[in-house]
Design a protein that fits this description.
Pfam families: DAO. Keywords: Oxidoreductase. The protein is an alpha+beta fold and about 425 residues long. It contains nine helices and 23 strands.
Amino acid sequence: MPGKRTDVVVIGSGVIGASVALELARRGRQVTVVDKAGGAGHGSTSASSAVVRFNFSTAAGVATAWEAHFGWRSWAEHLGRDVGPLARYVRCGMAMLDVDVAPRSVYLPLFRNAGIPFEEWTSADLSERILGIDVGRYWPPKRIDDDEFWAETETTLGAVYTPDAGFVNDPQLAAQNLAAAARAHGAEFRFHTSVRGIERAHGRVTAVILADGSRIPCGVVVNAAGPWSTRINELASVGSDFTVGCRPLRQEVALVAAPAGFGADNRAGICVADMDLGIYLRGEAGGGLLVGGTEPECDPLQWVDDPDAVTAHPTTAVFEAQVTRAARRLPALEIPNRARGVAGVYDVADDWTPIYDRTELDGFYVAMGTSGNQFKNAPVVGKFLAAIIEQTENGVDHDERPVRFVGEHTGLAIDLSAFSRKRPRGTENSGTVLG
């Protein structure tokens, strides 16, 4: 059964898909967003810690995060429309603890080139700025049932502090804000709507086929389906020329009470990236503390075949591992007997760098491999895809002449070939969640 024709179908209404929809609708395209969930941001976005940091190992990664953070800091202006209650950016700063796998020498030159303010802290500075912190160097991360985990150390570490880092207080609301702004520009959102197929003719996408058998005729499709993105690619028979793959990964974030003094005056404390122990910490106003993992080699990764089959409840084993590591860094932290937190499924690229690109099927584009480190970049990712689509649909080969995106806030030029589906693997990025 034919449906109403649209210019673009965006598959997925997480923070990335909603951003893409907004930027395309702003440019006058008729946009239809479909999502199997019941609302914008109900998938991976809702499980995000929503940390905004600038510590990436490539120039493109650093420049993208720095450009994007201005969107968060001026969120109402970025949206450009009255969309009701807004997600809020909490500027609390981040301390990136020293770690051999991502030394300061890698990213500080990138900070300087981008104009990102930072402070270099010694272990004494770290002790003074984060009350009660253990400044011991314990690398590499170890399992908590390993006797070496509890071994004392005589070496210490410092940190690099970026005062402009922080987090978004409600990631799901952020996606809903973007969706509402896109609607104000004429975009249509269809929830509880699954995709069954991608129709093509003469090497070009022609329609999206829905689970009920109906079709949405269109000239462009953007796959922003998060952990379901590889399935959508298979429906479109694309991916044969990808040098980087993506897989769904189950992740957990623990929620505990922050130790006394971590956040003064009921404010959120400094975010801490602690790859030395394999965790990150993100405070919340009111005394909460989120504890997530950084995928240390000692922990098995929970790759999943079916994102729909993953339980959203935290497990005792992961909770205890993450919170015990946090208590090693913050000895005053109490470890609860009951696991509390959130679990979600991320769409992880082999090298932890997203793919923002065209594909071998004309009219079919991808914004995938984004989970784990790309929430922070949502304000600019929609602009990336809009630029790639505009150039490609006007006959310029993005593979041969990649878009050079210039940030409106920073003036930084970002070569979008860094996010190519055909990029060389492992040549620049860290191969970790840091990107």
